[in-house]
Write a structure and sequence with these properties.
6-stranded antiparallel sheet, Metal Binding Protein, Guanine Nucleotide Exchange Factor, Chain A, 2 domains, about 20% helix, alpha+beta
Length: about 170
């Protein structure tokens, strides 16, 4: 049975070298966003998203990056209000559901109704549940089953994927 080049390179442990080199040289193909937009008005081109978002927000919302822990000012936000998707402005979380999880990312025990979608994520090999804005498909974070009552959920959100609107404004 003939051996293909791919099998040979993978067996030798060098099958990942060309993609790794391409990434280092800036030629890697970027990953798709977490989910397609459910609202046709938010099915924007990549260049339109780049114009609309900061580089940090673009990396998280459109390329599923993760911001550094303890880097978001929203970790310290204590005022009453609403957390919106930084991509499209859809309300995602109420400040009433926010809590300090100690993880370094803004965390919530419940999302607003009809605000998010989810999918299984195997990027760290162990399956996780990724969640994203229902309207624009922008990646927000991951949800875990180690949160407080009443839901037992921890929606661990990237701060750059959110904007905060205080109730008094």
């Amino acid at each position: 049975m003939p051996i293909s080049r791919r099998i040979l390179l993978t067996t030798l442990g060098i099958g990942a070298v060309p993609p790794a080199l391409a990434a280092l040289l800036g030629r890697a193909r970027p990953a798709d966003a977490a989910s397609p937009a459910s609202d046709p008005a938010w099915r924007l081109s990549d260049s339109a998203w780049r114009e609309r978002l900061s580089p940090e927000s673009y990396a998280v919302l459109r390329r599923e990056a993760t911001e550094a822990p303890f880097s978001s000012a929203l970790n310290q936000e204590k005022r009453p209000g609403t957390y919106l998707c930084a991509g499209c402005g859809l309300p995602l979380f109420s400040s009433q559901a926010k809590y300090d999880s100690g993880t370094g990312w803004p965390s919530f025990f419940a999302a607003l109704p009809e605000s998010i979608g989810s999918k299984r994520d195997f990027k760290l090999i162990v399956p996780r549940t990724e969640y994203h804005c229902r309207r624009c498909g922008g990646h927000q974070g991951h949800v875990f089953n180690d949160g407080p009552r009443p839901t037992g959920k921890r929606y661990c959100n990237n701060g750059v994927a959110l904007t905060f609107i205080p109730s008094d404004s």
